[in-house]
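Weekly sync, protein design subgroup
Attendees: M.S., D.O., the rotation student, P.L. (late)

Item 1: inverse folding check
M.S. brought a backbone from last month's batch and wanted to see whether the design step gives back something sensible before we order anything. D.O. pointed out we never logged the input encoding, so this time it goes straight into the notes. Structure tokens as presented (196 positions):
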């Protein structure tokens, strides 16, 4: 108590108010010590409500059932060309390519028949040495996760498990967050990015 008295005395000498417990600002809990007459404080104004989090379709993260960052799926708007997609409805162009990327309508291939030059990697048919439709094998680009494969080189992730392409690990090529085990594909675009 002597320390409190000496501190209060110092406060008076220095011309500052002594500390008081805000819960007892009216002096009721300390026998009036530290409470000054006429010092009744006014009630504070109510604070403003905090800002809500960003809307799910504008938070800069691929979440929910979005097929790419803030687009596609059932809740968000359609995705621009180059974004990942699961179906035509996910794209502004209303065309999701066999590589599961939104593409311009004029780039659409006619599926169901081989071209005049025979099998190709864009005829929407699993033919020639492809391990899945238009991917894998020696001639076509590697397949994305979930597509059929025979060996690791058939997969974009570089990992073929039980004849199915697995998700990519850190540093593996990717086109969308959905290609990576971490769910993060840094720098993804038409040319691809790298899993984090």
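Designed sequence read out in the meeting:
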């Amino acid at each position: 108590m002597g320390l409190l008295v000496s501190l209060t005395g110092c406060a008076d000498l220095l011309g500052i108010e002594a500390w008081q417990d805000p819960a007892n600002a009216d002096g009721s809990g300390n026998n009036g010590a530290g409470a000054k007459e006429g010092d009744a404080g006014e009630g504070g104004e109510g604070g403003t409500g905090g800002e809500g989090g960003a809307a799910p379709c504008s938070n800069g993260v691929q979440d929910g059932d979005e097929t790419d960052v803030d687009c596609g799926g059932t809740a968000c708007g359609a995705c621009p060309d180059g974004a990942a997609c699961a179906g035509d409805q996910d794209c502004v162009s209303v065309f999701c390519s066999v590589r599961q990327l939104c593409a311009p309508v004029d780039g659409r291939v006619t599926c169901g028949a081989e071209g005049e030059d025979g099998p190709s990697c864009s005829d929407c048919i699993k033919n020639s040495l492809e391990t899945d439709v238009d991917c894998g094998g020696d001639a076509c680009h590697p397949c994305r996760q979930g597509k059929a494969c025979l060996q690791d080189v058939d997969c974009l992730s570089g990992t073929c498990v039980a004849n199915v392409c697995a998700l990519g690990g850190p540093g593996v090529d990717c086109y969308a967050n959905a290609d990576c085990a971490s769910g993060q594909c840094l720098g993804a675009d038409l040319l691809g990015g790298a899993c984090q």
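Discussion: Residues 2-14 form the longest helix (13 residues). Residues 129 and 138 are 7 Å apart (CA to CA).
Action: P.L. to compare against the previous round before Friday.
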